[in-house]
Specification:
Layout (H helix, E strand, L loop, with lengths): L4 H24 L10 H13 L4 H19 L3 H4 L4 H4 L3 H12 L1 H17 L3 H19 L25 H25 L4 H24 L10 E6 L4 H4 L5 H12 L7 E3 L13 H10 L5 E12 L2 E11 L5 E6 L36 E2 L7 E5 L18 E6 L9 H16 L3 E5 L4 E4 L5 E5 L5 E6 L8 H5 L4 H33 L1
Parallel strand pairs: 1-2, 2-3, 7-8, 8-9
Antiparallel strand pairs: 1-12, 3-4, 4-5, 6-7, 9-10, 10-11
Helix pairs in contact: 1-2, 1-3, 2-9, 3-6, 3-7, 7-8, 8-9, 8-16, 9-10, 9-14, 12-13
Subcellular location: Cell membrane
EC number: 2.3.1.269
Membrane topology: Multi-pass membrane protein
Length: about 525
């Protein structure tokens, strides 16, 4: 008798759908700012148990519902941005979060469908099934970070961002590789529930190897002496200008005055760091503003600041979101244009067909820059620049040709208030520091500004909605990490190595189980 898809959904998906959705929501609590690691086995283990014996269609639906809970709660902070201009966009807040969550949930759905298809085809069981599950999840995360410009927010690896030793393996594996190990460690306890015979000791052993390997290798890395500071003194300025007031007509002079006043506090420093679009206008076109900045930079100081820019080309100007470097003459020394633009924030995808405006104020869509580049500023170690959410992309922050000595992340998280969004954003910045072996200096308009060393440790920070400065010495870089040199090419060898180990152990246990069964039959 042929069973219809409606019958499958009603009798196979619906009974487990609520559980999958709740497990996805619980997985958010493994991430900063919560970082409850104990919920990892509960959340991902539940998903593993729910899908492992299902047909592909049902497994995909359960994976989608898990993703809907994961992204629905994990990205709930996006709704805050729609309230900045509530009269125009407020009604779109819930539909936008729901729609984005439903779209991103397709990646867990794909992972679960692929897992079940491969498991059925190869009749995979034991720890190899747990490995396959983790590999499918990590592969789907990699796709999420690349398809349609990518959105690798809240990778599973970020559950380890708040733990000094556990986040260090990202220096070798990157965040996608670390996500694989996080998911593997999370589903092995669930696999242990199903284990029979000698497999009962194999699964806990494999769990101990994964968790112990993470901790031991991480401890070894952070136990090495850090190189001495560069001796470059820096001041991060957190102006804390509300997003609703930032672009109000006539607000630019007052905003500039605020930043200059904060910059003048304390002893002189080598470099001032202002956040994304600290000056709400075309700074390079405002001679009075540049004169005031030049006066503040006398004595050899340098300013790195976010500012919009435009160039005239043809009949229409092109707009860029940039970081500009100024010295005491008021001259732009160098600059960087953001290349990973925020959909609907800095441009409207398919703008010719979608009848929707950008959420941010401005005259037109921004144009992407050419990509990561290393900036040379006189008197400073060479640096990489990342504006706002560019810092969330593993392996796409640093120029592969010329390695910088530090990363400057200028951002404006005022759009998201005091939600969990800025905390999650900070976690991404910490993981980039570990992956690249480079300090990350973060200037955020309303927080969280931070000085992060090359191990991902926060040395100094200024919290949300606080006005002030951070004075610190620029931390030194570590030697280029394996991930900095090889990027995501480290993932295939990792996958092959773990696969062979898991398959070898699983087959050895299977042969032992077969021997025990044969002996039992003969004795009977």
């Amino acid at each position: 008798m042929r069973v219809g898809s409606k019958h499958i959904i009603r009798h196979s998906v619906l009974p487990h759908g609520v559980g999958a959705f709740m497990a996805g929501a619980a997985a958010v609590l493994t991430l900063p700012p919560f970082s409850i690691l104990a919920l990892g086995p509960a959340a991902y283990g539940a998903l593993f148990l729910l899908v492992r014996d299902r047909i592909p269609l049902v497994a995909g639906a359960i994976g989608w519902l898990f993703g809907l809970g994961y992204f629905g709660f994990g990205l709930s902070w996006i709704a805050e941005s729609f309230q900045i201009e509530a009269e125009r966009f407020g009604a779109l807040a819930i539909p936008a979060v729901a729609g984005l969550s439903a779209l991103l949930a397709l990646f867990p759905a794909l992972a679960m469908t692929l897992f079940v298809l491969l498991r059925r085809r190869r009749l995979v069981g034991g720890v190899v099934a747990a490995f396959l599950f983790a590999a499918c999840w990590a592969g789907a995360e990699w796709l999420r970070g690349h398809v349609l410009t990518g959105f690798p927010w809240n990778l599973a690896a970020y559950a380890l961002a708040d733990f000094d030793a556990l986040r260090q393996p990202a220096a070798w594996l990157g965040s996608y590789g670390l996500s694989f190990l996080v998911i593997l460690a999370s589903v092995l306890p669930a696999q242990a529930i199903l284990a029979r015979g000698a497999s009962r000791w194999l699964t806990p052993l494999f769990f101990a190897l994964v968790v112990g390997g993470l901790w031991v290798s991480g401890q070894a890395r952070i136990s090495r002496p850090m190189p001495e500071s560069t001796g470059i003194s820096l001041r991060i300025v957190q102006g804390n200008v509300p997003q609703g007031a930032k672009w109000a007509p006539g607000s630019a002079p007052a905003t500039l005055t605020r930043y200059l006043r904060l910059s003048a506090q304390g002893d002189p420093v080598d470099v001032l760091l202002w956040p994304e679009t600290a000056y709400p206008g075309f700074l390079d076109e405002n001679e009075d503003a540049k004169r005031r900045i030049a006066e503040a930079l006398r004595g050899g100081r340098v300013l790195l600041t976010g500012a919009p820019d435009r160039t005239a080309r043809g009949a229409e100007p092109r707009y860029f979101n940039t970081i500009q470097a100024y010295d005491g003459s008021g001259t732009i020394l160098t600059g960087y244009a953001k290349h990973h633009l925020v959909p609907f924030g800095e441009y409207v995808p398919l703008g010719d067909w979608l009848p929707m405006d950008r959420l941010t104020a401005g005259l037109g869509d921004f144009t992407p820059g050419p990509g990561p580049r290393t900036l040379a500023v006189p008197g400073l170690p060479v640096l990489a620049a990342a504006i706002c959410y560019e810092i969330i992309f593993p392996g796409h922050v640093v120029d592969d040709e010329i390695r910088p000595d530090w990363i400057f992340n200028a951002t404006n998280d005022a759009w998201f208030g005091t939600s969990i969004g800025p905390e999650q954003h900070l976690a991404s910045a910490r993981m980039r520091a570990v992956e690249e072996g480079l300090p990350v200096i973060r200037a955020a308009n309303t927080g969280i500004s931070a000085v992060i060393d090359a191990n991902g440790t926060i040395i100094r920070a200024l919290g949300l909605e606080k006005t002030g400065i951070i004075d610190a010495s620029l931390p030194a870089a570590l030697p280029a990490t394996l991930y900095a040199r090889a990027g995501d090419w480290v993932l295939p060898p990792l996958g092959i190595a773990v696969w062979l180990l898991a398959l070898g152990l699983d087959r050895r246990v299977s042969r032992r189980n077969d021997s025990h069964r044969l002996i039992s039959r003969r004795s009977e």
